[in-house]
Amino acid sequence: MTQNIPERVRKILAQHGRLGSDVAALADTADLYAAGMTSRASVNVMVALETEFNIEFPDAMLRRDVFESVAAISTAVASLHVG
Amino acid sequence: MSDDLGKRAARIGLETAGPFAHDVDTNARFPSEAVAAMRAAGLFAAGVPRPFGGEGARVVALAEACTALGQHCASSAMVLAMHYTQVFSLCEAGARSEPFANYLRKVAAENRLIASVTSEVGPSGDMRSSIAAVETVGERYRLTKKATTLSYGQYADDLLITARRNSDAPANDQVLVLAQAGQYRLQDLGSWNTLGMRGTCSHGCTVHAEGDAWEIVSQPFAEIATQVMTPTSHILWSACWLGIATDAVGKARRVVREKARANPGIMSRSAQRTTEIVATLQRMRHDVMTMAREYDACVERRDPEQLAGISFVLRINNLKLSASRLVVEIVSEAMGICGIAAYKNDSPTSLSRHLRDAFSAALMINNDRIIETNASLLSIHKGD
Question: Which of residues 10-49 of A touch B (CB under 8 A)?
Answer without folding.
Answer: 20, 33-40, 43-44, 46-47
